[in-house]
Design a protein that fits this description.
By secondary structure, the protein is an all-alpha fold. The protein has twelve helices and no strands. The protein starts with a helix and ends with a helix.
């Protein structure tokens, strides 16, 4: 992922990215060690590989990052990029086990003023597919002042939402984005927030909509 040859040679790039399918929780400790040893530099690739490999070691790394008063803003932003779905690998993740500590850490992070850090709080909520987390994410979609935070919450809900999530977002779309239609709207012509909302609703509708 960091080798310039992989970026320059399409075949080499495909070969290297194909190896990502081999990520396993047993590899997380190695990537986490590389990430820690790189400090004070923040190795975004090692971090994302650790989180994508998943397992208990990934959970421990997140609690270490968000539970320490020494953690820098840039580090929280990096985690937010990965966990919210903007990173390269999180969609391939082997699973980070849910932990009640994530809800506490998410609440603290969502209270920060920088929206890039709040996106990390969104990502932490996404690790717990429970009603309380979904409720908070829906509140962010409807009320957060930053569009990027709202879109991050929508992307997480597209993965972790349930039938009630779909119902809420359908009602929200009808009142706030009446121009949207699952059948006729061309999302490529929509502003980013409206397009993300439509993709999330479409994803949830395929899983929970009327058959």
């Amino acid at each position: 992922m960091s080798d310039p040859k992989g970026q320059e040679d399409p075949k080499e790039f495909l070969k290297l990215t194909g190896m990502l399918a081999e990520l396993r929780p047993s590899m997380t400790a190695t990537f986490a060690r590389i990430y820690r040893e790189a400090k004070p530099r923040h190795d975004a690739i090692a971090l994302e590989l650790a989180l994508a490999s998943g397992g208990a070691e990934a959970a421990a790394l997140l609690k270490e990052i968000f539970g320490s008063p020494l953690t820098q803003k840039a580090e929280r932003v990096l985690v937010g990029i990965s966990l919210s779905g903007e990173g390269t690998l999180i969609k391939m993740a082997n699973g980070i086990p849910a932990d009640p500590a994530f809800a506490v850490l998410a609440a603290t992070t969502l209270g920060l003023t920088d929206p890039r850090e709040r996106i990390a709080g969104v990502g932490l909520l996404g690790l717990q597919s429970i009603d309380q987390s979904r409720s908070t994410l829906l509140s962010l979609v409807a009320q957060d002042t930053d569009e990027n935070v709202r879109m991050a919450a929508l992307r997480v809900l597209g993965r972790n939402g349930d039938r009630s999530t779909l119902d809420f977002l359908m009602s929200y779309a009808a009142s706030s984005f009446p121009e949207l239609s699952l059948d006729t709207t061309d999302e490529d012509k929509l502003p980013p927030l409206a397009a993300t909302l439509l993709r999330t609703i479409s994803s949830l509708d395929r899983r929970f909509g009327e058959k």
